[in-house]
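Reopening this ticket.

The earlier resolution said the output was attached, but the attachment link was broken on my side. Pasting everything inline this time so it's all in one place.
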Amino acid sequence: MIRGFVVSDGRKFTEEEKQMIWKKSPSHQESVEELRVADTINRNWHNGELRVINVLLEGDAGSGKTQLAKALSHDLQLPYTKITCFADMDKSDVFGSLLPVMEEAQVEDKKIIQFFENNSTTQQLLENLSSYLQLNMAGTKEYLEKLERKIKGTGKNVTYKYYPSEIVRALQEGYLLEIQEPTVIRDASVLVALNSALEIDGILNTPTGMIKRHHDAVVVITTNRNYQGNRPLNESLRDRVQHTERMNLPSKEVMVKRAFSKVGFADEVLLEMMAEIIILLDATSKANGIKGVAGMRSYFYWVNAVHQGENIFDSIYQKVIYKITTDETEIRILEKELESSQLLERIQSYLLDQKNPMNKPQAPLVSPMVDKYEEQQEGEEDLQKDTSSFDFPKEEEKIQNSDSALPQQEKGKPLEIFSEKRSKDIEIDSNKGKEHEESQTGISQQQVKQLPEILEKQEADKKKELNKEARTLMKNTIHQKEGIIIHRPPATKESMSEAESIKKEITPLVESMARKILAVLEKEESETYTQGKFYGTRFNASKVVIGDYRYFDKKNPPTENPSLAVAIRIDESGSMVRAQRMESAKKAIIALTEFCRMLNVPLMIYGDTADISKREMTSLYSYKEFDDGYEGVIGKIATMKPRQNNRDGVNLRILAEKLSKQIASTKLLINISDGQPKAMPNYSGDAARVDIQSVIREYERKDVLFLSVAIGEDKEKIAELHGRERFLDMTDLKSFPQKLVETISRFL
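Inline output:
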């Protein structure tokens, strides 16, 4: 049935276009989102600049995004087509390509010519060629580039034909175009190229001229939320969307109806409990930062497996859990939630009551993978039990007390001889171990004994060097005559205990965020280009005069490491004692430290105070230098405490100088403070403002980004002092750790 949402009344379609209009299957269940989007588009179809022609559907896999896009093709009666984005997409995939016209004499494989003759768009050509050549998209493009060089090498004139992209075709002909997963595209400029086309009267600048967007063209962008390899959707593109739907799992009732329609499984009670399990596993995955998702597809396949006679408790692993994750730890998390919910027990009771033939005696809920792992663990425990009696320093005593400890061939021999032999063997093995250890580490046993003294001297030398460096840096500033001392606070037993307690609390947050960011960093964008390509991500006008069609620059492969370095300055003035600001700051910095450690982001942390004594007008606390390891750092951070006054300019200058020397494309300095600068004798007001702003101006020219984080009542004055464009309000101390980590992640 076609509802009253049609926007193409009176329009004539070709036979091919009629076939492109999607037909709803009998199992299709209209959702609230579908009816809302179709109605919104229909009501505003003739509403001038307020027309709704660009729609964003954002949600998890299996939430029905593509199904909704196809359903809109039926509701609006527009031909449906799609383009699936990939990481290496470039502008030729948006605008189309100029490709050489092939002749039989120029190509060994004659089938290649058929692909050029029988495909009218770039996407069709590349997809079919990729399938035939068994290459990915990048490999197929490389093949075409080599083929073109070969043809030009024959010395004959080469003629070219324009192959429009599927995007160009859809916008030009007035189709409903689904753009799938644009967030995986590595080069953000590719989607920026679409901006003009997404306007009401959009125009695409193709290699053969300008193409105006058809009045009936509708674009539906479908994208997953926070998945591996995904990047945030370009803001300018998002701004051109007139309607957005957040696609979550449907309600339990809708899931049951869809499963019944699609699979034909009629046990409504069982369908409901299975739907509840999918909803529970999906929520558990999100809450624990597990990358996988339990969606409608998993639900359909699980229901279908049960409908075909598979065991419901076994098939949940192959159809649902292993699709979410195969990591043993994460599987245990999911199983624990299932056990707590008692949903599986309810299913088992229901099957027993129904005397269902699917019901078989069930083992406890343990996956084959986890079961194997636990067997291995038990084996290791047994081995430990078997060998626990062997304590080498007391080996002779053990042997004398137990004749069964003797190897079979040694039994019956005098114990003294065997004891002597064993002692010598142990001594030899021990010496070998020492020699091996020394050869691997380069450190002798004598040096190991001297290690504490060596480390203490190294620390003293480093502190001396840091102080010398700081005083040199303060020359020709208003702080040059002050007593500046840099301390290196050690971690104590008490501070490590406090830090470990904080770490335990923030670990789920940090690990969840780190997993998401690590996935994105695998696609880290490259900043270098290779010039003179037939296709690429950037048009190079300087190459046009050559006339060889190599007009594009192509991005080189992505870099391996995140290009970010972070420096943190924490205000340790006396006012930080209020409202547990220092406790919240420590928790946030420990969270950020763990986050940077997991992502291998260079990190430096300094605290400061002022006016401890006339000799020590400014005190700096170096908790972590860029070249320090992470061992014991959180214990050092836990020693932070409210002290005296604050002279912000000193620490900001020192951190900015060190940060500016880091090799990173983004250098971020975070200043965490609860108030304005104030120190003796006259460091406040205009004097402090001029000093701080001069530091910011000087080092922003050296590519250092400043971010001022306010955690006290003086937030408005701090914003005015540092500039509102550099200001972040975090006076909500409960959310401070999470917000700080999320803020840093945006720079990665």
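Reporter confirms the inline version is readable. Residues 359-443, 522-527, 557-562 have pLDDT under 50 and may be disordered. The CA atoms of residues 95 and 206 lie 5 Å apart.
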